[in-house]
């Protein structure tokens, strides 16, 4: 067994890293400061069940209008997860299981190396090794959702087995909710029947309890929604280290408050997931029953370093909660842009006063931009988008989806596109990808097109009708960024970022 602790490191540090005392007895849960959420864990059985659930929901789920008493932010942008339109737009495969197949076949935990590196909680240029919690995510392509798995339940609950839920990991929203049993026809698929949809069963559980009878609603910028009740249950977490210091890992269970959906919009019916894990930063802890308490707000007390790192490639990537070592191994990792203030108290919004197109500056109408893993595209001001596509010969538009939204397309034959740059904090980020790959290819007549990476912000839906919030920086840009989001309690939240290769998501085994 290779040791990653130096001789002078104390028992206190070892205990905090491993979850065990030196005499191999377990520590209390609150003493552990790094935990892991398994994500896309090659669960073929769950993949099979999802296909069954999609057919089941299509037959039995009632379709109704959005709830009139929806709770939405008033002074901030709406919760955002634009790819929830996927089933009716051009950005999701018609066969939902093909989205899961790459992860089921190839998904592995991407380990975090144990070298000392910069600490983003203080200064990304001088980070030291600290505790961390990490997940892995798998993307089929840039036009796919970031999908992960949470395990609900408790081992001491003898009445029901832990339940796995495949969720959209969405940086642009705050609500955590899963499909509830009220979405099913109770007579059509009795609990325990093989192949039943992986909904959320509560009938015989002793570990879960309903918090309130008042329904709440999460609304998204594509018009989709989920109506849910608040529940308490446990989520399975575990420490992550390389290599494990003991054969049996410590297995803590986080007591969590979240939403259990009783009604969802039609766009969610054909989703290959069972809910949404919002990774926004809303901080209304003074009124926990107002809406589902954000996951980060509930997780933050467990982290020695309250921060989150996002590192996505075109097909794989990971999200780290808590401090983690610096990554090396890419010849094109850029310099860090440090301590950029986060604005507001809802989402990960930064100042973005200017956009540049082939050297010409355009003033942003809102002056801000929001990071959003739930958005495939970059949604920006209409005048900038129009100017961008005017410089691409043969570009056109096409209506997509039941809402007939007009998207810009780029001919497959185009070899070069304008240089698009967005201000993030006080630095310019250059968009490397002009379009989305694979599933975003379209044909009009005999000409093949790609769906452009930059789209008009007016496509988004706001509570008042016309969206005027921040620009959205979606996955097509995030794959070229290593992002560290700091969220200390009672202190200003900040962001640090640097440029990376599209497919760089960490060191190879030879670099450990």
UniProtKB/TrEMBL annotation:
Residues 146-496 form the Peptidase A1 domain. Gene3D superfamilies: Acid Proteases. Coiled coil: none annotated. GO terms for biological process: proteolysis. GO terms for molecular function: aspartic-type endopeptidase activity. Belongs to the peptidase A1 family. This is Aspartic peptidase domain-containing protein. It comes from Mycena metata.
């Amino acid at each position: 067994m290779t040791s990653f602790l130096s001789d002078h490191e104390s028992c206190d540090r070892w205990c905090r890293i491993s979850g065990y005392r030196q005499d191999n007895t377990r520590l209390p849960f609150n003493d552990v400061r790094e935990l892991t959420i398994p994500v896309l864990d090659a669960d073929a059985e769950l993949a099979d069940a999802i296909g069954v659930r999609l057919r089941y929901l299509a037959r039995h789920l009632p379709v109704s209008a959005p709830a009139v008493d929806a709770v939405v932010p008033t002074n901030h942008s709406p919760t955002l997860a634009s790819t929830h339109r996927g089933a009716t737009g051009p950005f999701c495969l018609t066969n939902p299981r093909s989205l899961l197949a790459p992860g089921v076949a190839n998904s592995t935990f991407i380990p975090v190396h144990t070298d000392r590196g910069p600490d983003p909680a203080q200064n990304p240029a001088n980070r030291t090794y600290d505790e961390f919690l990490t997940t892995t995510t798998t993307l089929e392509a840039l036009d796919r959702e970031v999908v992960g798995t949470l395990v609900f339940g408790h081992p001491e609950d003898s009445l029901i087995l832990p339940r796995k839920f495949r969720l959209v990991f969405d940086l642009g929203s705050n609500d955590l909710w899963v499909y509830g049993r009220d979405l099913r026809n109770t007579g059509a698929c009795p609990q325990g029947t093989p192949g039943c949809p992986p909904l959320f069963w509560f009938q015989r559980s002793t570990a879960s309890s309903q918090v309130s009878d008042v329904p709440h609603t999460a609304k998204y910028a594509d018009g989709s929604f989920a109506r849910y009740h608040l529940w308490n249950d446990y989520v399975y977490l575990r420490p992550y280290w390389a290599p494990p210091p003991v054969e049996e890992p410590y297995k803590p269970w986080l007591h969590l408050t979240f939403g259990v959906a009783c009604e969802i919009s039609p766009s969610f019916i054909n989703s290959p997931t069972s809910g949404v894990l919002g990774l926004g930063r809303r901080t209304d802890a003074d009124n926990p029953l107002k809406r589902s308490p954000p996951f980060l707000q509930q997780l933050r007390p467990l982290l020695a370093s309250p921060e989150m790192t996002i590192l996505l490639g075109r097909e794989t990537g990971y999200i780290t909660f808590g401090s983690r070592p610096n990554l090396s191994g890419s010849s094109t990792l850029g310099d860090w842009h440090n301590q950029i203030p986060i604005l507001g108290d809802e989402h990960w919004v930064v100042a973005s006063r200017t956009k540049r197109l082939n050297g010409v500056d355009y003033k942003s109408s809102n002056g801000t931009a929001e990071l959003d893993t739930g958005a495939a595209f970059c949604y920006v001001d209409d005048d900038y988008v129009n100017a961008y596509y005017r410089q691409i010969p043969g570009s056109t538009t096409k209506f997509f989806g039941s809402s007939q939204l007009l998207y810009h397309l780029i001919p497959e034959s185009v070899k070069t596109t304008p240089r698009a740059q967005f201000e993030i904090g006080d630095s310019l980020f250059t968009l490397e990808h002009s379009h989305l790959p694979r599933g975003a290819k379209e044909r009009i007549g005999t000409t093949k097109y790609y769906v452009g990476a930059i789209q008009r912000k007016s496509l988004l839906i706001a509570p008042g009708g016309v969206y005027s919030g921040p620009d959205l920086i979606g996955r097509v840009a995030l794959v070229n960024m290593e992002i560290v989001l700091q969220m200390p309690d009672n202190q200003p939240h900040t962001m640090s970022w640097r440029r990376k290769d599209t497919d760089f998501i960490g060191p190879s085994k030879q670099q450990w």
